[in-house]
Amino acid sequence: MTETTKNSTTPESPGTLAGIVARFETPETLITASRAVRDAGFRRWDAHSPMPVHGLDEAMGIRLTILPFIVLVAGLTGGAVGLLMQWYTNAVDYPQIISGKPLFSLPANIPVVFELVVLFSALTTFAGALLLSGLPQWFHGLFANRAFHRVTSDAFFISIDARDAKFHENEVRRLLESQGAVSIDSYYDPIKERQIPTLIYWAVAILVVLAPIPVLLIAWAREVPSSRPRLTLFMDMDVQPKYKAQNESPLFVDNREERPQVPGSVPRGRLDNDTKFVYGKEGDNWVRTFPESVPVNLETMQRGRERFTIYCAPCHGQSGDGDGLVSARASQRMEANWVPPVQLYATAVRFQPVGQLFGTISNGVRKMPAYGSQIPPADRWAIVLYLQALQRSQSGTVDDLPEEVRKKIAAH
Ligand code: HEC
Question: For atom 39 of ligand 1, which residue has the closest CA?
Fold first, then answer.
């Protein structure tokens, strides 16, 4: 027997017997010995080698891990949780119709379901692999055996756990000896110094005691009925003198907390004294020419085209046909109340004075909403200018062609 054997069995390393470890010279003997240990019916034992040994798993009789099945169950649970959560939040707890879509439909829920399947499976794989291998473990008796340290360089071992039902010290030794073990040692449960330091026990205990405090504080702040403000960590954010929208205020005679604009007040630079520019009217009549302050040039028209594309095209369509996206969608859904937008180059619109077009944008017309509050007057005029170009593009005559082209046509 080696020196190590004497060391590990001396009275200096007391503790209960944790198992027996035997060293073998070659991978071949390790395999035959493993087969013998397996056939002897041991279950709590292991073979150790510095490199992968082909056929060892088979010799040991290692069966497939059940981890994949655990992960499968976890993944399915994740998917079910994702689906239920979305169904509950979207279809039950806070149903809200968005763009006429159904409250609950499978395709829309796939991304979250997928994410939760991955999340649950990944966490389960991680924790499962650790737990199934008996980790985390602070220390193992084998590490106290000096000879065993060679397992990472040039030695092969079989260790048999003393907790195995078939474990009888002498029989185990005899078995391993008969398989050609070059040394056989007992190893012991970790002695006191090798157990988890009390400091860590205390730290964990204190954390466990403290952990519920934030949750309890939140629960208390939410639930305890009191006339005083709730428990607040950031006083300046929660408790501040302010009115929330659409509440009452005793400060004013009409008890309204939100104040209407003071009649007759004019924001700086917004004095609407140019009625032609602001209303498109002179007296009671729509103006027929652009106001002086609107430059009728290419730049204005391009601005008008840009604004038209933003504000008008969704209904009226890019070329004013009345086939914009909103309108197309409404007719696709056969919305009974939808009035199709007017064709902007229709005769009834084409000969309208510019002031009237301006008025339509500002105040809306019949079913069309007003855009005066969204589009400033200068931009409204720019849109009108572009609108005229648009109308012209749809109602061209021979007279619109260049001189020479007209001559050619006449010659024919
Ligand atoms: C929300 C959809 C919608 C938008 C956006 C919209 N319109 Fe209209 N517009 C309509 C509808 C609908 C009508 C027809 C109303 C009716 O006949 O009741 C209409 C009618 C008109 C008319 C014809 C008025 C008349 O005298 O018959 C003009 C001109 C017009 N729109 C210009 C514009 C311009 C310019 C814009 C962009 C600033 C715009 N519209 C934005 C829906 C829209």
Answer: 312
**Tokens 């009409």 — which residue?**
254
Question: Whose Cα sits closest to atom 38 in ligand 1?
Answer: 312
pLDDT at position 8, please?
Answer: 43
In order of 139, 151, 194, 208, the CA distances from 5 in angstroms are 20, 16, 20, 43
41 conformational bin, left if phi > 0, alpha if psi -120 to 50, beta if neither: left
pLDDT value for 231? 65
Burial of 360 (0-12, 13-18, 19+ CB in 10 A): buried
Two structure tokens written together for 24: 């073998």
Residue 76 contacts residue 64 (beta carbons within 8 Å) = no
Say if residue 82's pLDDT is above 80: yes
How many C-beta atoms surround the C-beta of residue 32 within 10 A?
14
- Burial of residue 299 (CB within 10 Å: 0-12, 13-18, 19+) is exposed
Q: Which amino acid is at 356?
A: Q
The per-residue pLDDT for range 198-250, each reduced to its tens digit, is 888 899 999 999 999 999 888 887 776 666 666 667 777 767 788 888 889 88
From 311, 316, 325, mutation site for ligand 1 pocket: most ligand atoms within 8 A of C-beta: 316
CB of 141 closer than 8 Å to CB of 8: no
Distance 225 CA to ligand 1 centre (A): 54
Structure tokens, 75? 């993944």
Beta-carbon count within 10 A of 8 CB: 21
